[in-house]
From TrEMBL:
<dbReference type="GO" id="GO:0042838">
    <property type="term" value="P:D-glucarate catabolic process"/>
</dbReference>
<dbReference type="Pfam" id="PF00701">
    <property type="entry name" value="DHDPS"/>
</dbReference>
<protein>
    <recommendedName>
        <fullName>Probable 5-dehydro-4-deoxyglucarate dehydratase</fullName>
        <ecNumber>4.2.1.41</ecNumber>
    </recommendedName>
</protein>
<dbReference type="InterPro" id="IPR002220">
    <property type="entry name" value="DapA-like"/>
</dbReference>
<dbReference type="InterPro" id="IPR017655">
    <property type="entry name" value="Dehydro-deoxyglucarate_dehyd"/>
</dbReference>
<feature type="binding site">
    <location>
        <position position="64"/>
    </location>
    <ligand>
        <name>pyruvate</name>
    </ligand>
</feature>
<keyword id="KW-0456">Lyase</keyword>
<dbReference type="InterPro" id="IPR013785">
    <property type="entry name" value="Aldolase_TIM"/>
</dbReference>
<dbReference type="GO" id="GO:0008840">
    <property type="term" value="F:4-hydroxy-tetrahydrodipicolinate synthase activity"/>
</dbReference>
<dbReference type="GO" id="GO:0047448">
    <property type="term" value="F:5-dehydro-4-deoxyglucarate dehydratase activity"/>
</dbReference>
<feature type="active site" description="Schiff-base intermediate with substrate">
    <location>
        <position position="176"/>
    </location>
</feature>
<comment type="similarity">
    <text>Belongs to the DapA family.</text>
</comment>
<feature type="active site" description="Proton donor/acceptor">
    <location>
        <position position="151"/>
    </location>
</feature>
<comment type="pathway">
    <text>Carbohydrate acid metabolism; D-glucarate degradation; 2,5-dioxopentanoate from D-glucarate: step 2/2.</text>
</comment>
Length: 317
């Protein structure tokens, strides 16, 4: 067995499965100071509040955490701080990415920092055929002992045949989906071996969470948890309890308008979330270029929407 870590792969899968039933998956923002430098003290304090809301697992340095803006040293600091703050309470799944050579370096760092698993973010720039997508995971898996979760989004999209192939790679334990093509996704779940993990990783995943759950994928990432764990928690509970009226109320009053705002400007997927966290008093700082912070008009809409959402769940602004 090549995989020997603090937790075995089976234990990590079990901890993830258990966590997924208890709360949303937290994708924390990364805190930057006024000059754009990494602000670890603020990150730790923010993360502590994220964890106090009892997410099922924490995924540092992923899309929401601006993985693509971090250098290796900063990445190490963020993952190390996350493992320390989490203190074993929830599994830590660190983002890794780019081509397999660089992704393997990030995996090595995440492993040394004590992460439990890694989320393989989509490569960028070039499109790749299925054989290449599978080979990318084979190459990374051959170079790390960390269990890997593949992330299909953007130009990464697996066929049922490729899913069978990646699930057979030693160390690949699951798939996070960001395409929301439920027809295709159902074919993937049917092709997967028993125990393979699936996550709904759509942008503002709550919007389609009920639909994903009907095809056997109840676990989802929540960008809303990154700034309003109270709203994300209320939605999770309503969905879990089958309270459809409450789910509709939160979708109608908060999530759908949020998606409309989030879709307005490229990069708002992250920068709007960061702005919302600042409105909550979190010292997360601004986004790094090429992302840009929302302008005054959109901030005013966001502030109102946040107040509505918090009011819907009886939480203070
Ligand atoms: O990589 C990431 O940060 C994600 O995919 C998680 C986000 O929470 C995603 O679900 C979103 O943007 O709503």
């Amino acid at each position: 067995m090549r995989r020997q870590h603090l937790h075995t792969e089976t234990e990590t899968v079990e901890r993830l499965r258990e966590g997924m039933g208890l709360g949303v998956l937290s994708f924390p923002l990364t805190s930057f100071g006024a000059g754009g430098e990494l602000d670890l003290d603020s990150y730790r304090a923010y993360l502590e509040r994220q964890l106090a809301a009892c997410p099922g697992a924490v995924f540092p340095a992923c899309g929401t955490g601006e993985f693509f803006s971090l250098d290796e040293e900063e990445y190490r600091a963020v993952v190390t701080a996350t493992v320390e703050v989490a203190g074993g309470r929830v599994p830590v799944v660190a983002g890794i990415g780019y081509g397999w050579a660089q992704a393997s370096r990030f995996a090595r760092i995440a492993e040394e920092a004590g992460a439990d698993a890694a989320l393989v973010l989509p490569h960028y720039l070039v499109a790749a055929p299925q054989d290449g997508l599978v080979a990318q995971l084979e190459q990374i898996a051959a170079r790390t002992r960390l269990p890997l979760i593949a992330y299909q989004r953007g130009q990464v999209s697996f066929t049922a045949d490729s899913l069978r192939r990646i699930a057979a790679i030693d160390g690949v334990i699951g798939l996070k989906d960001g395409h929301s093509d439920l027809d295709r996704l159902q074919r993937l779940t049917l092709a997967a071996p028993e125990g393979f993990l699936f996550f709904n990783g759509a942008s503002t995943a709550e919007i389609q969470a009920r639909a994903y759950a009907t095809i056997g994928i109840p676990a989802y990432s929540s960008a809303v948890h990154a700034f309003a764990p109270e709203i994300a928690g209320a939605f999770f509970t309503a969905l879990r309890d089958g309270d459809n009226a409450r789910v509709d109320e939160l979708l109608r009053g908060f999530y759908v308008p949020l998606v409309e705002l989030r879709d307005r400007v490229p990069g708002y997927a992250v920068s709007l979330v960061k702005a919302a966290a600042r409105l909550r008093g979190e010292r997360v700082g601004r986004v790094r270029a090429p992302l840009t912070d929302p302008g005054a008009d959109d901030l005013a809409v966001l502030e109102k929407l946040l107040a509505t959402g918090l009011d819907l769940v009886g939480a203070a602004v």
